[in-house]
Specification:
With 534 residues, the protein is an alpha/beta fold. Helices cover 30% and strands 21% of the residues. The structure holds (2R,3S,4R,5S)-2-(hydroxymethyl)piperidine-3,4,5-triol (DGJ).
Amino acid sequence: MHTVRRVFRVNGEPFFPLGGQVHNSSGYNLSELQQAFKALEVLGGNAIEVPIYWSQIEPEEGRFDFAVLDELLEGCRSRGLRLIPLWFGTWKNGQMEYTPNWVKTAPDRFRRVVAPAGFTIPVLSSQCEESRRADERAFSALMQAIRERDAEEQTIIAVQVENEPGILGCDRDYSAESTATFHSAVPSELIALVAAHPDTPVHTAWKEAGAREGGNWPETFGWRAGEFMTAWQIARYIDSLAAAGKAIHNVPMTINVWLGEGGHRLAGDYPSGGAVTRVLDLFKWLTPHIDIIAPDIYSAATESYLFECRHYAREDNPFFVPESGSRGPNARTMFYALGTFDAIGYFCFGVESMLDEEGMLRPESREVAESFRVAREAIPLLLKYQGTGRIHTVVQEEHAMGQYLEVGDYLAFVRYADSDMPYPRGYLYPRRGGPEGFDRARGLIIQTGEREFYLAGGPFRVTFKRKPAPDAELTPSMAASLMNEDLPDFCLVEEGGFDAQGDWKARHWRNGDEITGGLWVDVRSGLVRAQLTA
Ligand code: DGJ
């Protein structure tokens, strides 16, 4: 049991954003966004993430134009969507692609990172105060514009500061100035923080390098020193922007991360100095104005997906996924984030690509879209039961047939739909035909009372067996009942959903054949609510 910090709120009430992020260049005007809005509808999303480009809002230095923000707010409001703008400023995927031309064409003023070979790369140096000031001015102007337009309505529920910051290309800036910093003493306040936090990767690196109290960066952190120094520099740069922005309009601020855990192991293959797991603690210490550091999770393999969840879901870091796959295994793995790791919001990337030119859902995105719709229906339950230990994740891993769960006083056996599996009564979906062509199961089982459960997702079915009392003798009839999976013992089984007020509305009642063989759920059945007799 732990408290889930609900960073996202609307009028003071917890809000669970679920939806899509648009492609990088879909935010220039409203007409580009039409397909994304359509896709959001198909997904059942309640929120959208759209970039705001520094190059667009400040085309000439000091001249700001927020027409695009007006359009965006109008587009979201007319559809009842909440918005998270993504500030594409100094960094976009460890590069400077969305900075204005007056920045790009003045490299002497807005200094770039120098690669080890001596040439500059298209990444602004975090050590250039002129760049930081210019970005802060633009970001502050954006926050002012948001405040003027949205302080009342609160369409904007958070702002992402920069996008996947870091240096793409090398571990640190190799300019003479930065190299001198690299060979100077590590700031003592950083050493003090590292020393005070054992069991962090940054502490481990420090210990491996000899746990020195004084020393330059490589002496203090060993072979990853370039990345550590860059993280120190970038975290402070971003936090200064967030502080300035919050002073103008106080909404939650986030950073997203290009993860360094995939195939890319050397900093610079992924943006060096971004908040990857090994420097996440350092970022948390140095960014008090950032509410969430959020991983962009595209991992298809469950092991990597879980690794990423585990590292970013921390007491001091509410778990939020701002980007994930719009097709493939994310249809299943997302339930680990929602059910096991208490994600407080979830988005897939490139949402408009889920539809084809005719606006129809592409077959390869169907499962993800269905999972999002399931998640949307479950939001009232997520808001209420995350952190209580009452939400159980169902995910059918490859070749798996079922899952055993301990749910309160019950043992639950989850069987995945599988055409090879014999069904005791011949069918799984009494109202929808045969068991052929099933997707892999995914979803949630949520215990809302001693004997009450909600099922979301599918296709799977569950049988519940009450754990015998510790001193109970297993009589032959109890044993028989424990073995008998077909024995339905429900007071109530309903299909339905929650209305806008959060009240449960049953749409269909099950009994007889429909409750024999376990409690089944399918992505199209809506939520299933069941009360056991005992
Ligand atoms: C992560 C970035 O943050 C997005 O802007 C986009 O480039 C995606 N990757 C593409 O997969």
